[in-house]
Amino acid sequence: MNDNEIEKRYEEALTKAEQKAAEVLEAIEKGADVPFLPSVSINTDKAWKKVEHAAYGKRRTIRFTTVCLSAAAAVVALLLLFPVSEISTDEIYPVAGAVTLRLADGNIVNLKDNDCSQIISSVAKVDASSSKIDYSGAISDAQSEKMEQIKLNELSVAKGALYHLILSDGTEVFLNSGSSIVYPEKFTGDTRNVKLTGEAYFNVTPDASHPFIVETSLYNVSVKGTSFDVCAYPNERYYNTTLVTGKVVVENRGEETILSPCEQYKYDSEEMTAKVQTVDTSEILSWIDNELKFRKMKFEGVLQKLQQRYDFTFEISPSAENAMLTGTIPLDAPLSEILDILCSIHQLDWKIDDTKVIIK
Prior knowledge:
By secondary structure, the chain is an alpha+beta fold. It has helices spanning about 5-30, 45-55, 65-80, 280-285, 300-305, 320, 335-345; strands at about 100, 110, 125, 130-135, 150-155, 165, 170-175, 180-185, 190-205, 210-215, 220-225, 225-230, 240-245, 250, 255-260, 265-270, 275-280, 290-300, 315, 325-330, 350-355, 355-360. The strands form 3 sheets. The chain has a 17-stranded mixed β-sheet that branches. Strand 21 and strand 22 form a beta hairpin. The longest helix is centred in the N-terminal third of the chain and has 27 residues, at about 5-30. The protein is globular.
């Protein structure tokens, strides 16, 4: 490809990309939910240098009236110019986290092992291929002598993994990365209690006479049959409970708060204060579909969410940490691709030092 051909292709691609970028930016300004570019492996800095070297041999600066538009358009144009295979990057991909089950007798089972079902076949059915463990049909006799003593199991999901748990009453639990839940093999007594660390979505089987209670380190959530999300990571400042359907009661230090659908109970663990706010439940539950959906979230908050899937720490300058972002991120994409798009919106620079992301 000679110089004239490269320049012509770039200008054509840039014209198309500039038009598309203008549409995206207009949607963002209106507060619309805008998905990011499709998953591709690209480092825009390296790609741009490749264009410059091939066409001109020295740096050429192209300016547009809107700098943000220029950044967004340049990314799209570079994608049109060069195949992904031509651009090499050092990537950080989502962690392939472990999923373990600590049985009542203390034994620990790797649930990603295809042979693990043989170890706990008398208690539950394990499907390693679909990341699911099911207790609902494992024990048919509720009065069985084997269940006279409550047996507690602990399911732990490491960073980068998700898991689907079906409890003995049929209640479904979807466990997010870096989370764990303690539960009985079979519910007995007047209540159905579980203990959660991290985040989980619950679709509770209705049973008016046996309330379902989720215990966290700061407060409890009580329901009789409903669907809701509880986010209670011990290293995060805010603990949130979001109601999707039905009704929940949040019990915190002797005070009860009743939530209606689309309401979120947000507790500040530092100030020890709580508030109820209306939220978009599709954003809260987007992690179940392996996405991160957000609207007007601080840059620092987005990075904290990404840390649940990717193995990195971050350092962000004060001028960048409060930058607001709206969009949807695929949580199976290379981290460099995500950073390229996020940083281009606010004209920020980023680099990776080992597993540390530095943004300024």
